[in-house]
């Protein structure tokens, strides 16, 4: 089983090796510190604990996965979070990504469509000291309008098309990372940026493979 430090070193190598596509040779020290601090083993099924620090996605039940640590780190890094930011996560899953966000931002709101996953994530997050993360069961494509606008939005499952509600709930000056594409088919990770006038630019980052947004 790889150690936490070995994973962090692998993430730094991955950043260098994918820099041609991502435009980033290094991950933020704040992001790496968050990855190192959050106990990934707490967010995986008991039978997968020995694999928790492997740089790979792992199944968490209900057809869902906990994302590969490098993808978690990259998507988080692209958001360029500040300590006072409000962040919306679509797809709570195990709660691992939400915990990473909570280490970096001021407030985190997370939406999960599968009630059983949401309940389990809430229990684990509370046990790990992240009880202030706001969780909701619902359709992630609708976002969380009551708490909008958000400084950053991260989507951890792939819709075919960009949900309009998420773009509307992104604050001017905000950033969104989202995988788009066919279920179990070709997908691309996009970084969307909204300027002060509300204009949106989009940049392809990497080809990726995510579970579909449901």
Biggest sheet: strands side by side, in what order? 5-4-3-6-7-8-9
User: How large a portion of the residues is in β-strands, by DSSP E?
Assistant: 25-35%
Pick out the low-confidence regions: none
Shape: globular
- What is the helix content? 25-40%
* Count of strand segments: 9
CATH architecture identity: 3-Layer(aba) Sandwich
What report would you give on this structure?
This protein has 214 residues and is an alpha/beta fold. The chain has one domain: Rossmann fold (3-Layer(aba) Sandwich). It is built from seven helices and nine strands. The strands form two sheets. It has a seven-stranded mixed beta sheet. The radius of gyration is 16 Å and the shape is globular. The termini are far apart.
Task: Describe the SSE topology.
Layout: H1 4-17, H2 19-22, H3 29-37, E1 58-61, E2 64-66, H4 69-79, E3 86-90, H5 96-104, E4 107-112, H6 115-127, E5 134-137, E6 150-155, H7 164-168, E7 170-181, E8 187-194, E9 200-208
Parallel strand pairs: 3-4, 3-6, 4-5, 6-7
Antiparallel strand pairs: 1-2, 7-8, 8-9
